[in-house]
Specification:
Helix content: under 10%
Strand order of the largest sheet: 9-13-14-15-16
Largest sheet: 5 strands, mixed
Distance between the termini: 12 Å
Order of helices and strands: EEEEEEEEEEEEEEEEEEEE
Structural class: mainly beta
Radius of gyration: 19 Å
Strand content: 35-45%
Length: about 260
Amino acid sequence: MLVASVALVAAPAAAGRPAGPSRPALAPTAVTFADRLHGELGLASPNCDGCNPRGAIAVTADGGKTWRVVRHTDRPVVAIAFFHDVYYAELDNGRFISGRPGSRDVFKGYCPNGWTRGYSADIVDTNIDTPWSICSGQPGAGNEAKAVYRGRRCVAFTPTALHPGYGGISEYGYAAGIARDGGFGIIWETRGTLYVTRDGGHQWHALPEVARPELDFGSWAYVLSSRVGFVILERNGHRRLVETRDAGRTWRVVHRWL
């Protein structure tokens, strides 16, 4: 079971020699599922002074209730996805440790010049499906312009100027990534909240009762089907995995990391 004990335990100090600083517990950063039971989790060491950043990959076979580490990595895991029976994982230095050879920028979508691309939790075959992207403008004082693209078509836009946007996304909060399947999608943010759409990205609904602004910070989201989605949220250093089975109308906690 993956809880705080995921951290490696320092070896006992030699007799008469003080023990060195313990290595901090790994924290979940990204999650993906192949089906309702089987998934993969990316982990990373939190920011700390004097420690080497590292990460790990864990797996579940019970829908995220328990996790088992299957691989340690020399860098933090920052993104993870499942596509065509293959798990893709990316480290913070841009290196892939799983996925097909030649994978590059698979977690980034399209944004016009002058916009910053957020993570895309979904890898799609662009010959068959249209990728979704979340784009951000220059941040400032907790606010930023935001845009959702389907392919190269903007379907939701939130400016920071006085003229109105469309799509229902507030300028408050920093958009971090987007996940979707069919018409159901999730945007996760830092400082802000969660947003869900059920109409293909045209209208988004804020969920401050699930992710409270300034208290809950989104780490990753994954949409498994048109009704099932997962989100990793962090509050005061503690993370939890929440799940919806009705396209974001209700949520439950699947696992907590203490």
